Amino acid sequence: MSASGRRGRWLPFWGPPILVFLAVIALWYGVSYLLLDADRRFLLPPPHDVVQVSLLDRYNLVELLDGLWLSTRVAFLGFAVAIALGMALAVAMSQARWVERSLYPYAVMTQTIPVLAMVPLFGLWLGYSFTSRTLVVVIFAIFPVIANTLFGLQSVQREHHDLFTLHGANRRTRLWKLQLPAALPAIFTGLRIAAGLAVIGAIVGDFFFRQGEPGIGILIDRYQSRLQSEQMIAAILLSSLLGIVVFWFFGFLAQRVVGGWHESAGDPGP
Amino acid sequence: MPEMAHPVLTFDRVRKRFPDGTVALAGIDLGVASGEFVSVVGPSGCGKSTLLRIASGLTAASDGAAVAHTDKLGYVFQDPTLLPWRTVQANVELLAELDGLPKQERRRRADEAIGLVGLSEFAGHRPRTLSAGMRMRVSLARSLTLRPELFLFDEPFGALDEITRERLNDELLQLFLSQRFTALFVTHSVTEAVFVSTRVVVMSGRPGQVIGDFPVPFGYPRPPRLRFEEGFARLAGEVSACLRGERRRPVDPVEGIARR
């Protein structure tokens, strides 16, 4: 159940994650001050230094946010393409065995292909701009969309199919009125996984392109090479925050769309 | 086979052999006349469900033919087969929707059918919030919207507790009287079969064949206490004995077809 169903039980819901957060901060301080000498503290600068240098300094903050914004756009566009293409492919595969047999192995390949090795090639073919970065995101994110949509479409009960057969439903009616709605819970599971992968894809692709307008991946690479640990840590935290927000959003969406009738609909969670 | 006034459904030497070689039905001859309520009882795996699938055209017979003399067919599965994302109202409208009836007419018929099964208050509910018995009523209502002349029931109440099952038996008979359909009702409960039917047909285990055919002499409406009367118990006992194979009706050993 969602938090809104338990108004007034704020503490049990938010308490544990906040406690973990505080524990991590404490551990972080511990490592910075107790484990590292002053001259090696740049390896893990304490939290307040990270905030000071990267978030309270206007110039650094703008650089970071610009990079984050670019990576967000790449992630979202790539994710949108992955959803549209992935669902279309899954629907095609659900219509005939031979289509599934022909295409599924290549869908699996998007998972096994060493994308990082391909990244420089994409750069050569398509340039280091938006397009090739988006392509990396699509390759990262498309498989869970295909696999979960297909699984959902194929998991319709036999009796439901019989019912539609008895009343002469054609493929389109069957797809729209039976298979797609039935597949929604599985589709949302796929979207949540793919959303996280899209964010990772945007950052990793960016990180390995090392060229063009700087997204958050390029910034991380740059900060790393300049030993600007405070900014590097801030960049890493911001990108994971982006992933969490996207993941949350789809959990929330799933809850709204299928929560009324399906038990496994995502709990947006803390 | 005896001459039948208005046959609604006839099975003529229907055999079913599955691709894996199992013979589910070994030559079934059976007729259902207009206005009859015929129950088929038999051990599980005797091909009772296959019989209905063949009658409805969902499965083809390997041999022989099943002919339904009406295309207004209702089919109620053991599972209520409701669409969980639809409300009760939208679920009941589904078949009329698939058959392309206009929206107004769909609504009207659904309202009427939901009223018939006593669920008007729950029209806006989703199936998961209903009890198993209520879901089965929704499933019945859904079929009623198309005003079937022939109803095929595939152990519709098999998964329900006894109290709910008896209540639904009573309600089903009320519908049988008010809606005037013909029914072929598959069940593995002898009591249920005798209580609802005008005729009980007994099938043997695999390969399924008809080994008994009992007319039920009780009139309608049937009060719930009929289940505890002597005549009822005697008939139920006879059907049970036949099921156990104690009183096999003569069966042609070569053809495997019940002679009546």
Short description:
The complex is a heterodimer of chains A (270) and B (260). Helix content of chain A is 79%, strand content 0%. Chain A has ten helices and no strands.
Please characterize this protein's 3D structure.
The complex is a heterodimer of chains A (270) and B (260). Chain A is globular and about 75 Å long. Chain A has helices at residues 10-35, 47-55, 58-95, 97-112, 115-126, 130-154, 158-166, 171-209, 216-225, 229-258. Chain A is an all-alpha fold. In chain A, 79% of the residues lie in helices and 0% in strands. Chain A has 10 helices and no strands. Mean pLDDT of chain A is 86; it is low at 265-270. Chain A has 2 domains: 1-44, no CATH class; 58-258, MetI-like (MetI-like fold, Orthogonal Bundle), CATH 1.10.3720.10. In chain A, helix 3 (58-95) packs antiparallel against helix 4 (97-112), helix 3 packs across helix 9 (216-225) and helix 6 (130-154) packs antiparallel against helix 8 (171-209). Chain B has 260 residues and is α/β, with parallel strands linked by helices. Chain B folds into 2 domains: 1-72 and 150-260, Rossmann fold (3-Layer(aba) Sandwich), CATH 3.40.50; 78-147, no CATH class. Chain B is built from 7 helices and 9 strands. In chain B, the strands form 2 sheets. Chain B has a 6-stranded mixed beta sheet with strand order 5-6-7-3-8-9, sandwiched between helices. Chain B has a 3-stranded antiparallel beta sheet with strand order 2-1-4, covered by helices on one side. In chain B, helix 2 (88-98) crosses helix 3 (103-116) and helix 2 packs parallel to helix 4 (132-144). The radius of gyration of chain B is 18 Å and the shape is globular. The termini of chain B are close together. Mean pLDDT of chain B is 88; it is low at 250-260. The interface between A and B is medium-sized, with 22 and 21 residues.
